[in-house]
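Annotated sample (chain length 810).
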Amino acid sequence: MNTLDAFLQRQVEKHGERLALQFRPRYRTIRSSYAELKRRVDGLAAALAEAGVQPGDRVLLHAYNSPDWVAAFFAILARRAVAVPLNPRSTPDQLERIVASAEPRLVLASRYTPWTAAPLPALTIESIPDAGPAPAVREGQEAEDPEALAELIYTSGTTGDPKGVMLTHRNLLSNLEAVSLGVPLTPDDHILTLVPLFHVYGQITSLLIPLHAGCAATYLPAPSSRTILDALAHTPATHFVAVPAVLKTMMDRLESRLGRMPGFLRRALRDRIRARISRSLRVIVSGGAPLDPVIEEKWLALGFEVLQGYGLTETSPVVAANTPTAHRTGSVGKPVSGVEVKLSPEGEILVRGPNVMTGYWRDPARTAVAFADGWLKTDDGGHFDQEGFLYVHGRRKYMILGPGGENVFPEDLEAELNRVSGVTDSAVIGLSREGRTVIHAVLLCEAARAEAAVAAANRKLASHQQILSWSVWPEADFPRSVTRKVKKEDVIRALAGQTAAAPAAAGKLTPVKRILAEVTRQDPGAIADTARLGADLGIDSLLRIEIVSRIEEQLNVMVEEARITPETTVAEFEALVEKQKGVAPKLGQYPRWSLAPWACRLRPLARVVFLKSWLSPFYRLRVEGLENLENLKGPVILMANHRSFLDSAVATFAMPKPVRSRLAIAASTEVLYAYYRWAVPLGELSLNAFPFPTGLHENIRLGMDYVGRLLDDGWNVLVFPEGRMRRAGEALLSLKGGAGVIAVEMGVPIVPVAIAGTDRIMPPDKIVPRRRGVVTIRFGQPLPTRADESYEAATARIEAALRDLLGAGG
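Output written by the structure step:
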């Protein structure tokens, strides 16, 4: 196992069909076994070979976390090329500086993050097919070399010369072995991670370690309050990997829900509180930035094991870590196996070991400055306690020299500020004022609260730590690194020339207006506060889903769709978003009681007793196209025209048992769950009906989430995409746009179903048959879905198939 390519090959041979990676981009969970991952890697490696990628070539990787990212990373290494992972949120200018430095052969990009920077040969990851059963042939490859360069990770370059950290296969594998010894996992463990894979912290903790253990990892493409809580509720995660900012936010929201519960009562209810978060989670892993000891203690008090570590990109990355057998709150643990750590006379942390980089890409001068007598200079201050636990004081370059020559570490002051109610985050820096250094705090909070927040923090700080000036950051958040660290250089530059203690004015283009402009494709400057979302901006129910999704993903705020109406103004919407900050989202319940084993066993009998026994005398069923339901591989969505309340029952009776026994039916909340509530228990037991929001003021997303969960668990779903029942004399109604959303987002075949004759037996809005007659059910050929198809095109394709199936007599 000299290279990462050989490492993957060995793990695939050992674990084969075990689950390796799990990913939920929106409504569906995409799962990949070890064997499936290897086939994906081989397919991509073959495409790279065809594109002329040779050993040593640099290949850019431009994508968010996903199984495709993982496959692309290993495919690059399989070609003995050098991976250059990129932050997909980088601007074109930033990317072009990296291109100029790395001189890549090509870029592997996702269709979700298309390459828009300097012209380069590009391959879209999702468009490349998997390899067949036989492994891809790799001719002309060099022998395995653990000292060969595996990847270049750029830790700077947004404003100046890019700084590319060179990491070899040996660097990464040595760190993998060291961390695995300290924090052993088993194949039954499951990692849920929020950290990006383009950062080496994410690669070690959330990719290589789970693969090493033979367990699974779940990725969230854009972590938000809703997606995190949803993943914890539905994923059997044993380990949760996050950065301190996320852990603080989660704890703040949890405490806001608990209120001012006394400590003794909180301890008494610990198990119930912990179960609300996750029934399987045991360990929380924190890294990338210092974790506030107070936050750490709160998670520990709930019974979770919190393992904080320390490292740098230059050290692959882990230098020290707490382990289950050696832990100290507030420390970053002891040095991991094989890594040496010592302190310089000035208290700077120095590191030496097989995990330390070979240097900076094509920058011998910067490399020489980074080392002292073979030791990597971290630029971090720290100390060891008597038992060998390392405590990190923070970056020495941001350390402030106090008035009496004392060392003031900004992290200590920021921790106090961040504990003040109303302060979301802070950045403390030293500003030069008339020949002396002034401790200055930049706050994320309401301007009216800033002065009181500084005063509250100063009461807890020593005399040499007193904050003497402050300002309010003008944007929704600080500029941050991939591990959510505040980019203090950017903050310092922004403050240049500003007057201390004067709150900066917010710009006219707010984050909410920016999102509205992106979704509606309008000029952001033209969006007025008084504009109505419906009449003026043209935001319908589908765009509502997109907007609330982006609000969650970019602002970490959950807004219920039902609270947004066509008459809601932009100003009212911004106020709603602001009010929802810090409010924990309410999740839809999955599974419902109707999916319980006892209900599934009872359902066939319930169908006969409550439906077939009294309905069968009124209809004679004619079924066509059953051959289209044979040999289905996996679940499908059946989309039918709607003529009568009889439709759901007869369509179910017409299906073959394998499809019928795993069927759930979407029922309109505006009909069954509003006007016929007395029939809900019968409908849910007999037909496995579930509420699907269809009203203008309802939260459609919850219904989409439920459908996605059903499909994940192998259930077929029947929906009626016309939105209402067809009246006498009407042809097939134009399908609602939601049909296309469901088809594209769910990623399963769509089976069109034509129903004829039910309206003559049981007219629309009637719940008792009025006459006897023939009912015809026609099942069409399954329509494949494409992730790159527009919602409008998918809707039109489904509607055309239904019209063809209904025929002239439909």
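Annotation: Residues 134-141, 499-508 have pLDDT under 50 and may be disordered.
Annotation: The longest helix spans residues 597-615.
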